[in-house]
Amino acid sequence: MAPLAGRIDAVLAETGAERVLLAGHSMGGLVARAYLQRCGNARAAGLVTLGTPHQGSQLASIGPGKNARQMRPGNLWLQNLANPAAVLDTLAIYSPHDNFVMPQSNSQLSGAANYPINGLGHLAMLYSPRVAQALLSAFDRMDTRSRHAHRV
Fold it and tell me: In this protein, which residues make up the domain named GPI inositol-deacylase PGAP1-like alpha/beta (predicted)?
């Protein structure tokens, strides 16, 4: 978490912004949530997750290593991860056709605005103009609410 916190501090110092807008794809969304849990939301104006397994993925049960174990449905780390939607403007962009997050509904986050993008697989979300437009629209909306945020 220290490298991410350090990078956020550096961006704030370089830009003069008071807060950042965070985005994370897949486990990156979980990392952003872990950052917010550990460091608080004083430096964040909003969060957008893309294909993030908020409630885990059954596919993780065949994956090796700590990260795969953390993404298994019902994992204690996931259960204890604070929900940023309670204190921060949060959008979860997900695909009902995600081929990594199973079931696909596990990419939705309780309390957040959940936005489906049909017809895309997990990795295809990274290259989709529709996803890029949804992300930019969310950031524009969040930035309007928090006039001193910088996109990271």
Answer: 14-60
Query: Domain boundaries in the chain?
Result: 2-7+19-151
- On the 0-12 / 13-18 / 19+ scale of CB atoms within 10 A, 86 is exposed
In DSSP terms, 91 is beta-bridged to 48, 113
pTM score, whole prediction: 0.89
Tokens of 5: 């916190």
Residues in the chain: 152
Compute the distance between CA of residue 85 and CA of residue 72 in angstroms, rounded to an integer: 21
CATH number of 2-7+19-151: 3.40.50.1820
| Residues 105-134 pLDDT 10s | 999 999 899 999 999 999 999 999 999 999
Of 53, 59, 55, the closest CA to residue 75 belongs to 55
Tens digits of residue pLDDT in 15-36: 998 899 999 999 999 999 999 9
